Amino acid sequence: MDLKLLAVAGGQAPADIVVKNGKIVNVYTKEIYEGGVAVAGDKIAAVGDVDYCIGEGTKVIDANGNYITPGFIDGHIHPESSSLSIRPFAELVLKHGTTAIMTDFHEIGVVSGLEGIEAVLDEAKETDLKIYFVVPSHVPFSPALETSAGQFNYDIIKKALEREDAVGISEVVGPYILAQFPDLLTSMDLVNKTPGMTNQGHLADMKGPAMNAVLAAGVTTDHESLGPEDALERVRKGCHLMIREGSAARNLEACLKAVLEAKLDTSRVSIVTDDLHTCDGVNNGHLDDAVRRAISYGADLATAIQMVSLNAARAFHKDDEIGGLAPGRRADINITTGEEDFKVLSVIAGGRQILDNGNMLVSYAKADHKPCLLNTTTLKNPVTADSFKIMAPEGAKKVKVQVMDTLPWIPITTGREAELNVVDGVVQCDLEQDVLYIAQVERYGINGNVGKAFMGGFQMKAGAIASSVGHDNHNVIVMGTNFEDMAVAVNKVIEMNGGQIAVKDGEVLASIAYPVCGLLTDLSAEELAAEKVKLNDAIHGLGSPITIPFMFLSFICLAALPCFAITDVGFINVITQQVMDPILEVLE
Amino acid sequence: MDLKLLAVAGGQAPADIVVKNGKIVNVYTKEIYEGGVAVAGDKIAAVGDVDYCIGEGTKVIDANGNYITPGFIDGHIHPESSSLSIRPFAELVLKHGTTAIMTDFHEIGVVSGLEGIEAVLDEAKETDLKIYFVVPSHVPFSPALETSAGQFNYDIIKKALEREDAVGISEVVGPYILAQFPDLLTSMDLVNKTPGMTNQGHLADMKGPAMNAVLAAGVTTDHESLGPEDALERVRKGCHLMIREGSAARNLEACLKAVLEAKLDTSRVSIVTDDLHTCDGVNNGHLDDAVRRAISYGADLATAIQMVSLNAARAFHKDDEIGGLAPGRRADINITTGEEDFKVLSVIAGGRQILDNGNMLVSYAKADHKPCLLNTTTLKNPVTADSFKIMAPEGAKKVKVQVMDTLPWIPITTGREAELNVVDGVVQCDLEQDVLYIAQVERYGINGNVGKAFMGGFQMKAGAIASSVGHDNHNVIVMGTNFEDMAVAVNKVIEMNGGQIAVKDGEVLASIAYPVCGLLTDLSAEELAAEKVKLNDAIHGLGSPITIPFMFLSFICLAALPCFAITDVGFINVITQQVMDPILEVLE
Predict the structure, then answer these.
(1) Which is nearest to A271 in space by CA: A77, A62, A431?
(2) What string of DSSP letters covers A324-337?
(3) N- to C-terminal Cα distance for chain A?
(4) How many CB pairs under 8 A join A and B?
């Protein structure tokens, strides 16, 4: 028992910090009233009239009449989507008032398994960001269709759930429940019977009886609602609605307006980001941006704040620990402006002041990464231009192929048939038809797989781009207009121990190294944002109009996203979950 | 994984039960709309449009346009206050729509320890009432001031918390935290670090800094709010407000009106009963009665239902399991009338129909009680009239004594000084001054203690009454106008293996046996209610105007309730927590 905390709360000892002269946003009552907050160690000792806690040595912070809110909680985020290693990521989000996240570190898990995730959780301990670990429910997503170095099965999940920071399992995919994946059902049973644990859902596109079935299995939240119908069905069926408003998908306007217009009880509605890209984070912020938007869509301040604090905590049964300004809760406190132009001015996380009127007070040392996070790119066989060639049947001069096109605003693929010429037995890309070569190269030294296909929608006119970030296996994805540049791009990515690159005529136009798991950099958010701009500019210079091409590319590898995908195993028909030959027939 | 449940939810198999043609009270959204509920096994498979679940063998229940609500949950109740053993108690509350309770079985624990509680939990398994076990945080309340057979210390609490049905520790007394009782703080630390567990508070009279301190220690709920100020402070400070509306204390009107008038978010407000006396339960009901009252105090139907279902579940982090109509939740379902004249018509508990339009469909067999629950009354020394005599100092003829008076409407004691005559060295009671003899006799065969004092407020004019129910030690409490009747009363109670009795001139006027722990009977609620009327009538015939005299008597033994108490150890000054001599001075 923290006797100092009790003494401060009880008025027998001075607080470490007192925030005074503010307007308390009380997420328990949805009231806003004048008051302050007293802190002892890493906990809140008192809220409201806290003058009695000021004594010798108390640091008094004047809120100057601004609002005092709980620290924000992102109930569903993959920090790896920022491409930042955990410490600069923590700096980025803390600066915007996020003091706790729930995450599965699924991408780290794909590359380095539970050992890698535990190493990152250790690195995170040096930050002031509170992290709750939601154990990945399955890695990789499609074991038969892709190669990953890390794996999560029931035994590993069971072990991970015993960690003190574990709060459940993540990304429980609806159709996988309906298909009765044995490891998944066993893991869910374990979660269902373990107090405090939850099955966090990934219930894209589910409705009606199918939705009833996955909820009956014990899924309690979902972050995949796209519009009013999804949102209302989830809340009404007792499924905590995590409305996603992130860099990759923005569902807040449609879903929040539906909830507010229907005048639903909002205690089981929270806002999450799922993905936060560094440029977005640097330019717009994190959950503070979501609060601004929520207010613009009609939420009052207290309701918006509740959705990024208490409600997220409730979804994990952690509302006694975080999510509100109350005695005994973690001292996560923001000072903010009001509804007019919502902004986080100052941040206290775990009792430590992080931000003071917009100025960061902390900077975390670069982590000494454990070996399991480093040197994760190994080719079993050398990669050359020949590695990417798709050979036509002997004697063919023209073939009909299946091309996959990305939509321009979201990395969802559709199918298109195209006629391509054959030269020296090799099927040729066709820039006029916007048909490029795409391939994924296995990078863990396991089997030397290279999957190959044809890609449309990126509209590149020259060169090649490659990346060691590709859901859900993070092999090296490469796309190009010629085999030589593709080989250069892949080999440079391997040399960098992972990263992203644009190549033209054998020369590197721009690149970023991701030495941590081939996914993350130790650059600061601002440094990385600047590098990303350069890299994207280079790709736009190659002719592609896609705003964030590497993000799109990373999802083209996802064997679970319709309609087609490329993995190291081959060209995937997502609907049938089969590998297919991109060559459909010989025309000449 | 319950694959049949998934099949029913998914529409591949017929439901066991479908309730149709009702108005769903959705406690997640606070909406009310037309629909039904489908049940598979002990779980809900679907809610809303459930026609697709009807098939061969489905039992279809027509709600006839009535409301369909979740089963009710009492988040804080001591079933022993009904004097019923657990199976008839379950029948009583199930009949009124209560399908789950959170309880510590503290009184069983006092008499028979954890072994006794576990035996009762085993007996309860044969019923359809879901019981969550909140482990007693300390038994007895005042170890130095009373003798109990059962004890709860940290080691026992730790063991009990490992049970599957454990949800935390109960009755965490505010001042005991402030006094830093070592076992209590260690137990709280264990709870604080164990996911899903909660420290359930008993925070009578606490406010301001003292309240902040106990909340900072980890207490998350309280059921001791008496009025608006208490209620608002608790919700604002993040403490779940359990508004008590039971047989012994009624705080709903004052507290609920305060919450509603202040327009507070009510997601952390529930209604509990703490104590439910059998006569009250038989005549008025349980939480159904609380809902009726809540509506009369201004709550709308959905809010009132939320307060006796979802919100209570949330207070224990069990909202994924019970508390609402949603796929995967325990199939606890009530069919009720509406706001006008709220009544529970039909009840399904754990997927089994219990009540059909007011008719009970189940009757539980009398339990074969384990030995630890029986034969719990043993006197170390024989009790005679002499046992109760308070001797004056040698030669005294008149003494001034400290009398304790009960208030007439609540068993709170105040002090009064009186002058009493001494005859043959024995201080005499004085009916004209309303001063009776009172004593408590240790009944576990441990030390033969008899504590003695003088009692006012009961106004008995003849005879004696005795009871083996006395908080917080359940020794035999006896009160009378003469020593002979007191001895007869105590010896008869011991002969019955516990019970309550009224005696006059050596004859038994009325009695009820409580053979289970000296606290409970196997009679049905209706049978017991009839017996209680007879027993109370007998005591009223002895001149006492106190409506439920044995309930009052049971609290006069509580060394924690001001200002005075009697235990087997002696006459207790509760304020100083000291045993005192009731004789203050010799006057003649």
Answers:
(1) A77
(2) SSSTTSB--EEEE-
(3) 81
(4) 189
